[in-house]
Design a protein that fits this description.
By secondary structure, the protein is of the alpha+beta class. The protein folds into two domains: about 80 residues, Roll (Ubiquitin-like (UB roll)); about 110 residues, no CATH class. The chain contains seven helices and eleven strands. The strands form three sheets. Strands 2-1-5-3-4 form a five-stranded mixed sheet, sandwiched between helices. A hairpin with an 8-residue loop joins strand 3 and strand 4. The structure holds FE2/S2 (inorganic) cluster. FE2/S2 (inorganic) cluster (FES) binds next to loops.
């Protein structure tokens, strides 16, 4: 463990752990749109930028993305210095021009006092901020069904050739973790559709509620050694079953002790 100073407070941190983890532990609110605990950091959004210096840097400081900067002894970190806030405002300004219709971007920009972009608004801009969380999570799950495609303004996330991706199992990891809700899907009855691909949803054998897609259940039982039948009961019924069993064990223990 080493000592570092964050916003004037001395804290202990593991040498080598990323600054953003320490900042988050301290519950300091630093925007980090492309960060997700489950995947390797990418440093794409630049919003987690902080100012760092050390006693022996003779007054010099530099700006680093905290999600990618490893802790070093004696670092002095400012998460909201005037210059850091100005950098974040500039990034928000650019985001607002590129994604004028994203409520998530509007809200974040507003928190930094950016109500209107000073750049030309890209009227046909979509809500994909190219954070890469969806593709990294999909890769981490082992599917590799989507990737970042295109260039410049046209860059976005999509499956190969924009066709239903053969490797997608309809798990929704991409859509549920997208910070701007760009990835659309629909669940209707026992049919899920995402990336123009249809999936059959399994129905709970006890209450009839849908659980997960057949493809995802097959993938999990094949690769994670979870029996397929497990996915034929929904979470609520699993919980109910567990609580009933616990009740029976408690009653039996009480009986045995009396
Ligand atoms: S969270 Fe660090 S660059 Fe996006």
């Amino acid at each position: 463990m080493v000592n570092i100073t964050i916003n004037g407070k001395i804290v202990q941190a593991e040498e080598g752990e990323m600054l953003l983890s320490v900042i988050r532990r301290l519950k300091i609110d630093v925007p980090a749109l492309c960060h997700h605990e489950a995947v390797e950091p990418l440093g794409a959004c630049r919003l987690c930028m902080v100012e760092i210096t050390k006693e022996d840097w003779n007054g010099w400081s530099k700006f680093v993305t905290s999600c990618l900067y490893p802790v070093e002894p004696d670092l002095i970190v400012l998460t909201h210095s005037d210059q850091v806030n100005e950098i974040r405002r500039t990034i928000m300004d650019l985001y607002l021009a590129r994604h004028p219709n994203s409520p998530e971007i509007q809200k974040l920009a507003e928190e930094y006092g950016v109500l209107k972009t000073s750049y030309e608004v890209q009227v046909d801009g979509d809500n994909c901020i190219l954070c890469g969380i969806c593709t990294r999570i999909c890769d981490a799950m082992g599917f590799h069904a989507i990737s970042l495609v295109g260039r410049g303004h046209g860059k976005t996330v999509a499956p190969p050739l924009d066709e239903p991706p053969p490797d997608c199992t309809g798990c929704l990891s991409c859509a549920l973790n997208c910070p701007t809700n760009f990835i659309e899907f629909s669940d209707q009855g026992n049919k899920r559709t995402i990336w123009k691909k249809d999936f059959e949803m399994l129905a709970c054998v006890k209450c009839g509620a849908t659980t997960i897609t057949r493809e995802f259940a097959e993938f999990l039982s094949r690769n994670r050694d979870i029996p397929f039948e497990y996915f034929e009961t929904c979470d609520a019924c699993h919980r109910k079953e567990t609580s009933l069993s616990m009740g029976r064990i408690a009653a039996w223990t009480k009986e045995a002790q009396s």
